[in-house]
Specification:
411 residues, mainly alpha, 2 domains
Length: 411
């Protein structure tokens, strides 16, 4: 009897050691993989996509971002209870994000912002912008990986379980494994709750001064005009979380209803003086906005010498009437922000950096929206757009600004 008990204790020790080693190797594997995935996300914001470059690593920021990825995997693992299924979901999602971010950087010279994730539903428009061969290879990888995982749980796993059951020689060993399963369920539940809380807190990044201090997030960077600065200096995950949730505008000293009323009265008096000699009214005017995301005056570019202007007609119009210039943080893109600024007279630079695209980050949350159409009593407004209205919720945004008729002009 004593020899049997001794053998059972030895088997328990062997099982326990085996499972602990298996768990330890799994954790080491996912930490290593998370570290490399974090690197790939940072590298996706560069034109040349090399496999490894140590210059992209800042210790505090890398440690924080790798921790977020590890927490995300542990959440999936505790949710599914299957290591390989969690690994498939985790790696497929991150690699897909790496590919999508790199494609956007190549075409727009900017990373993916959180509010742009909704664009994933515009599959038709997105696939028209990418290399279909590369996309097909990614889909093939996903299908092959899924097949291998299904094959393992369908054929290999049941066979391994059967062999383990056959190796059990008495009820004591069976009870030990049964207790192990119950312990694992408890650990899964605790891990699921803990990782859910941590992921939720990570979305509140902008209110976490401790994390910002640890990774040395500079106030000047946070207030930069270009929202890409946080991504570029601190990594993709930090930049992504930084742009998740924030107030639309920073708090301004002496801001009050009375202060705004005084400003309104001051300019209303100036308007009344100007309008004394006018014989026509604004409500009688017809206004046409023509916005071109790739148009600019090359003579404004420093150190560029040109012999004659390529836009003489535009300059002639500017010299014959009221005219000026607009500041855009990019060329060949960012049309939605210029549209918003022109139609509302609000410069996007007045908002916090997290308001990357007011069409998607601001307008859906506003109860009262004003635009140039408020200057007319009964405006008849049309919008003609040369591309799909689905991106940036453009059709809904323009409708909330007062444009009830939307037309597409596509060649």
């Amino acid at each position: 009897m004593s020899s049997t008990n001794k053998r059972v204790r030895n088997n328990k020790s062997q099982y326990l050691f085996m499972y602990l080693m298996q768990f330890l190797l799994s954790i080491i594997c996912i930490i290593t993989l998370s570290f490399y995935f974090n690197y790939l996300l940072q590298k996706s914001m560069h034109e040349e996509f090399s496999l490894f470059n140590t210059q992209l690593f800042l210790f505090e920021s890398t440690l924080y971002q790798t921790s977020i990825l590890v927490i995300l995997f542990l959440f999936l693992w505790s949710l599914t209870g299957r290591y390989l299924i969690s690994l498939l979901l985790f790696s497929t999602s991150i690699l897909g994000l790496v590919y999508a971010n790199h494609q956007k950087f190549l075409q727009r010279n900017e990373p993916i912002y959180p509010n742009e994730l909704i664009e994933i539903f515009n599959i038709k428009e997105l696939t028209s912008m990418i290399n279909l061969q590369q996309f097909a290879l990614y889909i093939l990888y996903f299908l092959v990986a899924t097949f291998l995982v299904v094959l393992y749980y369908w054929k290999v796993k049941p066979r391994v379980t059967s062999i383990k059951k056959e190796s059990l020689q008495n009820n004591a060993e069976y009870n030990f494994l049964h207790i192990k399963k119950r312990v694992i369920r408890i650990i899964r539940l605790i891990t699921l709750v803990a990782t859910s809380v941590l992921l939720f807190l990570s979305l509140n990044f902008n209110n976490n001064k401790v994390i910002k201090r640890i990774i040395h997030l500079d106030d000047k960077i946070q207030g930069a005009y270009n929202p890409r600065e946080v991504y570029t200096n601190y990594g993709f995950i930090t930049g992504f979380l930084y742009h998740t949730k924030a107030n639309p505008m920073p708090n301004t000293p002496n801001y009050s209803k009375q202060a705004l009323s005084d400003i309104e009265d001051r300019y209303q008096n100036k308007v009344n003086n100007i309008n004394k000699e006018r014989t026509s009214y604004f409500d009688e005017q017809k206004i046409v906005y023509v916005l071109s995301e790739s148009f600019s005056d090359p003579s404004k570019i420093p150190l560029l010498n040109i012999y004659s202007t390529p836009v003489p007609q535009v300059l002639g119009l500017k010299n014959s009437t009221f005219s000026g210039t607009m500041l855009a943080n990019s060329i060949g893109g960012g049309t939605a922000n210029i549209e918003y600024s022109v139609l509302t007279s609000l410069n996007v630079n007045l908002f916090n950096a997290q308001m990357t695209i007011p069409y998607t980050t601001l307008l859906p949350n506003q109860d009262r929206i004003t635009s140039v159409l408020n200057l007319f009593e009964e405006p008849t407004a049309y919008t003609i757009h040369p591309y799909t209205p689905n991106f940036y919720r453009r059709k809904e945004a323009l409708n909330s600004l007062g444009f009830k008729k939307f037309r597409l002009f596509v060649k």
